[in-house]
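Extended Data, panel c. Modelled sequence:
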Amino acid sequence: MTYASDRRELRYGKISKELHDKTFRDVAYRCQWMTKKEIGKRRKAESLSRKRNTKREKFTEQQVKPSSHAANHANGLPSSSSSINNDDGINYNVIGGEIGRLLEQNDKALDQISANLSALKLHENINLLCQTRNNLDKLLTE
């Protein structure tokens, strides 16, 4: 900007001289309108960044809270490692074979994931989640 260091009125006068079809008043209104518009954009951007930061804070707070599954293990409630579904009481030995072995591995991995979440050891869960996914893929292809 070549007029940034000039006083406001002097700036409007110089600009209106260069724009032959615009008056001093036209230039002044336009500059004021653009200034207000820029201020509005900045306020909106600041507001959005505050909202994003608030959402991030809420998200990290939710990640830190242990899940109810993890809380059950911490409270000493029985684990589901001996059965697939607590409602029907089927255990992995009854299913047997490769499917029973994969389901049992997944159950143990999910129990370990839950324990890691309650201990805030999030990075240890990556391999366990990959193992669980691979086991599910094997189950679906059989």
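The chain has two domains: 8-63, 66-141. This feature is highlighted in the accompanying rendering.
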